[in-house]
Amino acid sequence: MHEELESRLREALRPTTPPPDFAARVMARVVPTQRRRATAAWWLAAGLAAAVLIAVGVQSHLKQQRDIQAGMEARREVMQALRVTNQKFDLAVRTVHEAPGV
Amino acid sequence: MLVRAQQRAVYSLALRMLVRSDVAEDLAHEVFMQLYAKLDSIESSGHLVFWLRKVTTHRAIDQLRQRARVETSSLDEVADVGAHDEGDPLWQQRLRQLVLQLSPDARAVMTLRYQEDWDPTEIAALLDMPVNSVKSHLKRSLDTLRQKLSGETCTKS
């Protein structure tokens, strides 16, 4: 009885074939999902690339600004040094001219 | 290709669990969609077979628990779904009806045992339950079926 029931259960519960267009309908649902995922991945990559480019551009601009600032500072220092040197030179000339016996 | 190779097992499992062919088909579709999303994590064909059955069974059990109970009228309507030419069709229909009256866990155990021909150890791994629970589900379900069938035979005679 036990084995007979089990054998009848195996017959009754045998796998059933799905409708003929089952696989086609699954693929019809899978493909747009994969395409959406690929599009999303493309946009993510494009976004990351754009962010990297912007970061590099900003960094380069800031460095350029820093270089210009440093150049201006150096120029100011050179001019200051020249002015000081010029004053010292004028003072020396004046001292030599005003010295008795010259 | 992959869908064609596995569709019969996945669809049948869903159908035996959920009764209605449209609901079973929908669940089978979702399982394959999930498979395509996780295809990279599948390590072998054996893993694929196990994964498909596991996801199908667990999703079906979840749906059955949400539904709470299936009305008897709908069982009568759909018990013919998946009928075979071989064997006694009335017996097969009655057995399928009786299996559908079991609890979701017991139904899953019976379907995996008699449709997929899996042994209790494999079923236990798939359902995340102890082997002894699987064995006791099998024994109790077979006893219930036998009692109901013998009761019907006595009533008829």
Describe the 3D structure.
The complex is a heterodimer of chains A (102) and B (157). Chain A is an all-alpha fold and 102 residues long. Chain A has one domain. In chain A, 86% of the residues lie in helices and 0% in strands. Chain A contains two helices and no strands. Chain A is rod-shaped. The N and C termini of chain A lie far apart (144 Å). Chain B is globular. With 157 residues, chain B is mainly alpha-helical. The N and C termini of chain B lie far apart (51 Å). Chain B has eight helices and no strands. The model of chain B has no long low-confidence stretch (mean pLDDT 85). Chain A binds chain B through residues 1-2, 5-6, 8-19, 22-23, 25-27, 29-30, 33-34, 37, and chain B through 3-4, 7-9, 11-12, 15-16, 25, 28-29, 32-33, 36-37, 81-82, 84, 86-87, 91-93, 95-96, 99, 110-111, 114-115, 117, 142, 145-146, 149.
Topology, please?
The complex is a heterodimer of chains A (102) and B (157).
Chain A: H1 2-12, H2 22-98
Chain B: H1 2-18, H2 21-37, H3 45-67, H4 72-78, H5 89-100, H6 104-114, H7 120-127, H8 131-156
Helix pairs in contact in B: 1-2, 1-3, 2-3, 6-8, 7-8
